[in-house]
Amino acid sequence: MKTPVDIAVTGAAGQISYSLLFRLAAGDLLGPDQPIVLRLLEIPSAMEALKAIVMELNDCAFHLLHKIIITDNPKVAFDNVDYAFLVGARPRTHGMLRSDLLSQNAEIFIVQGQALNEVASRDVKVLVTGNPANTNAYLALNKAPDLAPECFAAMTMLDHTRAISQLAEKCGVPSRDVKNVMVWGNHSCMQYPDLHHARVKGQAALSLVDDQWFVNEYIPTIQHRGTEVIKARGQSSAASAANAIIRHMTTWIQGTEEGDWVSMAVPSDGSYGIEPGLIYSFPVTVSNGQYHIVKGLDLNAFSLERLKQNEVELIEERQAVRHLL
Predict the structure, then answer these.
(1) Active centre residues (catalytic)
(2) How far is CA 258 from CA 181, 194, 197, 287, 303, in A?
(3) Structural domain tally of the chain?
């Protein structure tokens, strides 16, 4: 039996985690022969709900689930963890300004970043999904100076898979036939799903669809898909978000397919003129557990304008929370 791997999940009693935890315990992340320890973090008022989820996990008798630790202390949750899923965040409520959401969630991710810095494995992979994910990842990273910036990423994988799905549906092909889609920028309604380098069964995607559909239907659909799910379901995306979390981290561990890339929000290195240090979604390839921003793509004026809009939005978000750093 292999040595168990420690995995932390925050917001562990929330609806995304309810879909995520059972998949982790079943081996969907690390495979059918890797035992795991789940270290689950929640706020005190949610501990009873979390205990009920632990009861369900135990009732499943997952043979890979070595131990479950529940806590409201980030240092306990992140102790020597190899993978940290920062899912929990305060949701935006009616009448709340985005600046209010930023300030309230900033405190959560500052504390978590400090705890990761003190107790997590030095090779930890930290995936931030709690919104606003890019700026929350920026805060956590900046409060973890002893960890490499490459330990952190924010999730745009759900936006990426939505972009694949919508293009596949339009072209009448399975999603596996779609390659090189990318989502630039912020995980917000400003994000830019880009098809200029995408291919469908080896053909250029934009040779198969018209520009009007791309600009007026495709881009807004991806940007506002989360809102549409809430309207239809009455709640935000949960199972699809959990699936994207698994897919993002699996790709980070195992690597990307040859000739393809994925979208990840990672620390900018200045590529494509984006200010260094911003957590910005780029197309990336992954090898040996490390992500690499795809360089040298030819971007037209239409694309460059949208990249800049996302950069401006992220700089504004950073400015709103800078006093907390």
Answers:
(1) 187
(2) 14, 20, 15, 10, 25
(3) 2
Rounded to whole angstroms, how far apart are CA atoms 12 and 40? 6
Question: What CATH number should be reported for the domain holding residue 105?
Answer: 3.40.50.720
- Residue 51 included in any domain: yes
Q: In the 3-class helix/strand/coil scheme, how is 129-196 assigned residue by residue? A: CCCCHHHHHHHHHHCCCCCCHHHEEECCHHHHHHHHHHHHHHHCCCHHHEECCEEEECCCCCCEEECC
Say how far apart CA 325 and CA 323 lie, in whole Å.
5
Which pTM does this prediction carry? Answer: 0.96
Summarize pLDDT for 81-112 with one digit per residue, the tens: 999 999 999 876 556 566 677 878 899 999 99
Decide if 15 is inside a domain.
Answer: yes
Q: Tell me, yes or no, whether 62 lies in a domain.
A: yes
d(Cα 194, Cα 192) in Å, to the nearest integer?
6
Give me the residue label for tokens 């240092």.
75
Q: Which domain holds residue 187?
A: 157-320
The tokens of 45 are what? 């008022």
